[in-house]
Amino acid sequence: MKHIHDILSGYGLTVPEDRRADFDRELGENYATAEAMAGLQTQLKTATDGLKAFEGVDVNALNGRITQLTNDLAAQAAAHKKQLDERDFNDALKTELDKLTFTSLGARKAVEAEVRAKCSKLTDGKIIGFNDAVEAYRKADPAAFPEPGAENRPYFTAPAAAGAKAPTGKPDLGSLSMADYIKARRK
Length: 187
Hints:
Blueprint: H1 4-10, H2 17-30, H3 34-52, H4 59-98, H5 105-118, E1 122-123, E2 126-127, H6 130-140, H7 178-186
Antiparallel strand pairs: 1-2
Helix pairs in contact: 5-6
């Protein structure tokens, strides 16, 4: 490909050296070379072929579908966050309840229900209002907690096995050896 100055020289025209830079700048701003035009035509063909793939597509329907999918994703993210928050709350509640001593399993469950009813916010792994809810329950039902200093006293927290007899304070004489039986009878 010939340069523009060579083409002009072939016709007997020359651009003076002091004006050549201005001429080249103006030419570049107003005209494109055959190479540049071929590149533009290739880009135009590629764009045209790409647009053909979208012929007959309803843009409004696509926008509606995008909106629907975006909303669905946000709802799933919110549900997932809620599940994680519930799990974290349950873990924190179990940890806090494990630190306390109760007189029965029923008392623990009642305190847990009280805390769940009054507290729902978890901050930095701590249940906001937990201590207040426990103290309120302690005042309402002091029998749910052992007396101070009696923490080591045994409490039955699980129901007795089916068919188990309640302790009477007397030995079962039928299960003793003869020597133990005689000792028990003498007492």
